Amino acid sequence: MKFVKGQDVSYTALSGRSYEAKVIERKMDFKKGLIIKSTSNQRDFHYLIEIQKNGTTENILCAENHLQLLEKKKRREKKAA
Question: Fewer beta carbons within 10 Å, N or C terminal of the chain?
Answer without folding.
Answer: C
